[in-house]
Amino acid sequence: MRTARISCEGAIHKAIEWEGRLKLDDGRIVEERDVVWLTPIVPRTVFALGLNYADHAAELAFDAPSEPLVFLKGPNTFIGHNAYTRRPSDVTYMHYECELAVIIGKTARNVKKEEAYQYVKGYSVANDYAIRDYLENYYRPNLRVKNRDTCTPFGPWLIDANDVANPMELKLTTHVNNKLVQEGTTADMIFDIPTLIEYLSSFMTLSENDVILTGTPKGSVDTAVGDEVVTEIEGIGRLVNTIIGDEAFSNR
Length: 252
Prior knowledge:
Radius of gyration: 17 Å
Number of helices: 4
Order of helices and strands: EEEEEEHEEEEEEEHEEEHEEEH
Distance between the termini: 34 Å
Structural class: mainly beta
Helix content: under 10%
Number of strands: 19
Strand content: 35-45%
Shape: globular
């Protein structure tokens, strides 16, 4: 099943896909264009992976890491499907990153790889924008690179884990203004999902609605105000986002 969180007529609802429209938890059927899409869950702790695809590390002229490179993201940065991301006027390089989001379903401590999928609630799509102007260390991106307000679109759907036969064989694409600019597969992750869950739960407790953003393949390029950026993962969802400038952001 695919579920969403939306705002409709001033109230927040859970919704499911219903013949091309949305069925709300109060039984109403509404058009997708008539709602505001929220993130599919309210994220708790969000872990993000740096350089988790060998081809992405290579295009940045880095060696593949020997252990997961993880940083944290704050709640301020998340927005839903069809929302707007602000590009500050003083930056010169801001790129998208299509990523598979893994949502944890229950408390996890010292989980072995063989049991890791039992702790996954489901999957979604994220676009983890990065502002490279402030990047001092690819292995440890600072807050100004990865934690800007509105810079992590997330959604539109939460796909039940049981509905995804193999999350390690999914095609990822990004289109900017209908042009294909990024293409890869989750099969090329350096550290797969079970390894990441085992690694993180070995030294800290994971909880329901913690999220792991699993990294991005090669193909990141600069974006501009007015660009429509569509990040899509096979069987998981199609996440649409538009970049706006300071003035448009201030007037919204």
